[in-house]
Write a structure and sequence with these properties.
Blueprint lengths: L2 E3 L4 E3 L4 E10 L10 E8 L11 E2 L11 E3 L13 E6 L9 E8 L2 H4 L6 E10 L5 E6 L9 E10 L2 E11 L3 H8 L1
Parallel strand pairs: 1-10
Antiparallel strand pairs: 2-12, 3-7, 3-9, 4-5, 4-8, 6-7, 8-11, 9-10, 11-12
The structure holds calcium ion (2 copies).
One calcium ion binds next to β4.
């Protein structure tokens, strides 16, 4: 049975292969234009920096160099229930220098399109066991973001050789470049 997490809660991930599923719905009628959210991951070492430029996995770089982390591809609308974008993780392949995988969702061209997370509904991140498709952990972002254009949904990190997930839910006004600056 899935464990529903509260913001800040941490739980062990008891699966060597799992999918990070991210879902959202957008209210495009309020802005008129299209509304595109993008999931990305930053694969970090002990120093909280990406191991290399290729360890920033997103719609234009869908696979990490060790093939442990793979992005399902760009969903342009977020329409419908269920995962809108997914990231597959195979811990058996992961570079031993990796200690953290940071999962963020940003709004494509948020500034030009005048969009923010206040117009986003039903957003969640979940961890699904790849061996049997069971949902292990789920975090629904209930916070009412207003001006934020980027949100760190969660992070997966290694402590004493155990991988855990933390429900983060930290928003900011910015985009992918701001995360790149932080983790580079
Ligand atoms: Ca997208
Ligand atoms: Ca959706």
């Amino acid at each position: 049975m899935a464990i529903n997490l509260q913001k800040g809660q941490r739980e062990a991930i008891n699966a060597p292969k799992f999918t990070i599923g991210l879902g959202w719905d957008t209210n495009s009628s309020s802005t008129g234009g299209s509304f595109d959210l993008d999931a990305s991951v930053f694969i970090l070492g002990e120093n909280k920096k990406i191991l290399s430029d290729a360890h920033f996995v997103f719609y234009n770089n869908k696979k990490s160099p060790d093939s442990a982390i793979e992005h399902s591809g760009d969903n342009l609308t977020g329409e419908g229930a269920g995962d809108d974008e997914q990231i597959k993780v195979d811990l058996s392949k992961i570079d031993p220098n990796v200690t953290e995988i940071c999962v963020v969702v940003t709004i494509h061209e948020a500034e030009q399109r005048r969009q923010n997370f206040g117009q986003v509904r039903n957003s969640y991140v979940r961890i699904v066991d790849a061996s049997n498709n069971q949902v292990l952990l789920k975090y629904e972002l209930e916070e009412d973001f207003s001006i934020e254009t980027a949100v760190e949904f969660g992070r997966i990190y290694k402590r004493n050789n155990e991988w855990k997930f933390e429900a983060v839910g930290a928003g900011m006004k910015g985009g992918l470049q701001d995360y790149l600056n932080k983790y580079n």
